[in-house]
# Entry
Amino acid sequence: MKSVTSLITTKFLLNNGYSVLGDKSSNIRTVSAVAPVVASPPPPPIMDSSTDMVNKGNNPVGQLFGYVKDSFVRMKDGTVQLYTNHKRCNEIRAKQRDYLAIQAASLPNNEQRAAKKYHISAGGITYEEFDFLTKGKEDRGKLANVMFMMFFAPNFVPYAFMFFPEMLPSPFAMPLHKLGMPHTKWHDISRERSHAVIQTMLELEKAARVAPMLSNLNPFGKGRTRKMMERMDRLGRDIGGLLVAENASGARGSKLVSKVLESEVYSKERPTKDKANLACLPTAVIKGLGRALEAPSFNSLIPTFIVRGKILNTLKQIENADRFLVEQNIDLTSLNTELLQEACSARLIGVLGRSHEEMVEGLASWLETAVKYPEKVVKDTGVCYNGNLARASLLCYNLLDGARDGRSASYLPRLLYQGQMYSSSGQQTAPQIQNENGSSKKLKWYKKLN
# Structure
């Protein structure tokens, strides 16, 4: 009875914030008043799709209910967010129209109507608002495509979402889970773009050495096939020259590329349709560029003409953003890190591991090479400028430069060839490439750099 009473008393004291100190060698117990101990709640567990799947893996009913609930909540939140974004886009466009009206008020009457015409690069807004407006326009286009598909091909919609995850507007996009691994989206993008470079180079080398399978069936097309293979071989050697050229990296390398391609980019007459629409670029380059621009998700089953159309749309968006940054004289150092990362990534400028200053320098070099210098040349000489081909070439260079950067996520292919540009004595060798007959010569890229 005494032990039971002692146990009840001890529990009461503990529940009211007292500590009971006992001595094993005696029956003496001392009660001391201390502050009640409040247990801190445990940190919330990190949940992702894989953890949730494991927890509900033994309960199919609960798993199905959770899937339906998450889908409904995502649909509701996405719809509300999409409508909210639409209203904010209307407010931004209203600010742009007011800015255009104020600017046109000081012009003659016959020029005011043209000056008031709305365009997405109009001023009166910040770059953050311009970026939001661009993404809102893209989301509305995706929503229209989804509604069109749901009406005319409802049975195809689930498979479309499976194979084309980027077709959903951003408020409905599902977050990517990588089984709890500490990888950001920039790691995935960097790795996928490095793989796109390697795959493109392999395809170019194969096109220069191996004739297409169907070419043997056409007895009258061997001359055309031979010319195509020679063209791929010249392109491959030019790329090889860029790879071994000294100090051809970063802003200096982009200026070199634009200088070498001046005869292709500038012309006295208006660029032909093939050059303006990038039909002159090899299929391997188009595929690799499309894969890099859509990283980390890309469907290799898409036909080349569709990939080329997507690239042209992306180039148009980049052109609008370039015009806004230059015409509104945006201070690049004032952009926050997230906006700067998005702007650099859209131009395939390396983002992973780069500081704010490095990204500002890369974006400023792009604007100088793709916008400011061409405008000066066109104004001084009156030649025509093929902006699509120039930007596509700079995108290819940035993609190649990012894959060679020591901070890219795909490290094994880079480490495989890292030591090849040094001789056995540790001295850097002169940039050379071997001809078909075994002789070596310095490349034109090296001559232009020196």
